[in-house]
Structure formats: C-alpha cells, structure tokens
UniProtKB/TrEMBL annotation:
Gene3D superfamilies found in the cross-reference section: 4.10.40.20
GO cellular component, as recorded: extracellular region
Name of the gene this protein is made from: CRIM1
Major location category of this protein: secreted
A family per Pfam: IGFBP
GO biological process: regulation of cell growth
Compartments, as annotated in UniProt: Secreted
Key words, A-Z: Disulfide bond, Secreted, Signal
Molecular-function annotations in GO: insulin-like growth factor binding
Top-rank taxon: Eukaryota
Name this polypeptide is given: Cysteine rich transmembrane BMP regulator 1
Residue ranges of every copy of the IGFBP N-terminal domain listed in the record: 1-60
C-alpha cells in the first residue's frame, strides 16, 4: 500500500486507504476510505438533486 491500511467494508479484513484523487465514500464506504490527512469530498450533482448516502467522492 502506498499509504495506510484501513478496515474494509465487510469489517473482517483490511485494504489500502484511498489516496489523493482516488474514489471514496458511498454506502458503508464501498468506494473506499481516505488515508490520514485526506478527506472525502462529495460534490453536489450538477442537475440540482440532493446528495444521498450513495454518492462517491474523491479524496482531497
């Protein structure tokens, strides 16, 4: 892993943390968890819809 190791979505195994400009978020964090010092930024949809728990974000 280029960064930290984080607990996977299942809670029973580990995976590499998402790095800058990689995907993150989604239901239960299915798209990944950002590494230390980064945060998952989810941009609002361009069509004006509301955000839900299902959107993917990008680690910044």
């Amino acid at each position: 892993c280029p960064g930290s190791i984080v607990q996977g979505v299942c809670g029973c195994c580990y995976t590499c943390a998402s790095q800058r400009n990689e995907s993150c978020g989604g239901t239960f964090g299915i798209y990944g968890t950002c590494d230390r010092g980064l945060r998952c930024v989810i941009r609002p949809p361009l069509n004006g819809d509301s955000l839900t728990e299902y959107e993917a974000g990008v680690c910044e």
